[in-house]
């Protein structure tokens, strides 16, 4: 008996050390780690940095181009020349050299304002990248919070199954004592043992699911999947959400809707660029060049020069087979499509919010109902257990009360988790998913 007590103390001490070794991971910490490590967020962040780098006057074609040029052409020829008076001159291996170097400036000073539309378009693309980054962040934050509270729910179910194991052990002990004093049959003991094995199997399956969900959360957090941690015990639900407020926020903040609005602006700027082709394009050129020419045979054997060059050229499309009209019609259709997509997105967002809010209200009601149901099941189990100990109730009725209590606890944790998921979905649709879930 003393040895058994010793092993129990050792087991409790070891379990306590293991619990202390586990990191308590709060939902805020999990979100913070995901924002720092998650691969999708990193990629979206880098894409935004690329968009930011693309916003420049040079990339839009507003600034001039200045190039250094060098040309050096040489030849060795067997040359024979016939002069105008009929005389001939001949030289084998005649060397010729033509060298030119300098700087050249090319600047488009007018292109129908296409360059300015392009610059505005680059800024809109930067805004689009920012909206896409927010969407990636919201999506991953939602995944993290949902998975985190899934673990909380599973942890609560583990406790419920642990309670079932304790009660089943008590039932076996009671049945065995009754069997030994002749007040119960061996069948009662065997049935109790079968039920304990059933409860143990359910507990092992739940532990497996809990461990796998931990691995999945570590994967989302982009850290070592073997990292062990514990989560909080309760699910905290925001019960103050109102549909009109959520709808107003969604129209201003929903990343997908904002992306479509930006895409419409990009289409309008693209139309401006297409229309710019109706106007002339004017370029100015300038430069400073050095030239040197040498020839072994000819009237001039050497020539050099240096100085400024400058000029202006203009081109204008007069007719290109009707492609200009076609391109403008296509660009206008794209603008019209972008307007349609915005209207569609608004209707879809309104529908999703309304549906999600109804689910949210139902789940809130279910949390209250299942909490009351758990209290009732607990009271019923206590009464049944007292009667079972004194032998005034059948084992089958006791098992039913036990299962009712365990199922009530599981349904309660499921209802809390479902309500939390509904809250997360609503805030994600509204573009108002806070990093703090308290």
Automatic annotation (TrEMBL):
Entry GO terms, CC: cell outer membrane; efflux pump complex
Segments traversing the membrane: none
Keyword annotations from UniProtKB, A to Z: Cell outer membrane, Membrane, Signal, Transmembrane, Transmembrane beta strand, Transport
Signal sequence coordinates: 1-21
Localization in the cell: Cell outer membrane
Pfam families given in the database record: OEP
Main location: membrane
Gene Ontology MF: a single term: porin activity
PANTHER family documented for this protein: OUTER MEMBRANE PROTEIN TOLC (PTHR30026)
Similarity annotation: Belongs to the outer membrane factor (OMF) (TC 1.B.17) family.
The protein, known as: Outer membrane protein TolC
Source species: Flavobacterium endophyticum
């Amino acid at each position: 008996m003393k040895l058994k007590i010793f092993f129990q103390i050792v087991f409790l001490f070891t379990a306590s050390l293991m619990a202390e070794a586990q990191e308590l991971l709060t939902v805020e910490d999990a979100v913070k780690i995901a924002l720092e490590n998650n691969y999708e967020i990193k990629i979206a962040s880098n894409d935004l940095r690329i968009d930011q780098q693309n916003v420049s006057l040079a990339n839009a074609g507003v600034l001039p181009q200045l190039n250094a040029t060098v040309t050096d052409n040489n030849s060795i020829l067997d040359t024979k020349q016939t002069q105008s008076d009929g005389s001939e001159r001949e030289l084998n291996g005649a060397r010729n050299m033509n060298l030119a170097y300098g700087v050249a400036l090319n600047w488009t000073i007018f292109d129908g304002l296409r360059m300015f539309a392009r610059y505005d378009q680059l800024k809109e693309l930067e805004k689009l990248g920012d909206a896409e980054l927010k969407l990636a962040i919201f999506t991953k934050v939602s995944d993290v919070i949902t998975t985190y509270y899934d673990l909380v729910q599973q942890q609560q179910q583990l406790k419920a199954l642990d309670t079932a194991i304790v009660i089943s052990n008590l039932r076996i002990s009671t049945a065995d004592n009754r069997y030994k004093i002749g007040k119960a049959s061996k069948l009662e003991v065997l049935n109790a043992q079968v039920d304990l094995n059933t409860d143990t199997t359910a507990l092992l399956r739940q532990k497996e699911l809990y461990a796998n969900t931990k691995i999945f959360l570590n994967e989302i957090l982009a850290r070592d999947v073997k990292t062990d941690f514990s989560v909080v015990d309760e699910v905290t639900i925001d019960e103050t959400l109102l549909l009109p407020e959520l709808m107003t926020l969604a129209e201003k903040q929903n990343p997908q809707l904002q992306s479509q609005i930006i895409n419409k602006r990009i289409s309008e700027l693209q139309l401006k660029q297409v229309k710019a082709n109706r106007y002339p394009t004017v370029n100015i050129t300038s430069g400073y060049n050095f030239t040197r020419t040498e020839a072994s045979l000819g009237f001039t054997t050497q020539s050099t020069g240096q100085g400024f060059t400058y000029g202006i050229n203009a081109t204008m499309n007069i007719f290109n087979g009707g492609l200009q009209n076609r391109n403008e019609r296509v660009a206008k259709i794209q603008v019209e499509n972008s307007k349609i997509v915005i209207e569609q997105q608004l209707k879809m967002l309104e529908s999703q919010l309304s549906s999600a809010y109804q689910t949210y209200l139902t789940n809130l009601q279910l949390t209250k109902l299942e909490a009351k149901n758990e209290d009732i099941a607990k009271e019923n189990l206590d009464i049944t257990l007292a009667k079972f100990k004194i032998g005034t109730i059948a084992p089958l009725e006791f098992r039913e009360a036990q299962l009712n209590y365990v199922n009530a606890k599981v349904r309660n944790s499921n209802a809390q988790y479902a309500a939390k998921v509904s809250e997360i979905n609503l805030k994600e649709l509204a573009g108002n998913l806070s990093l703090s879930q308290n």
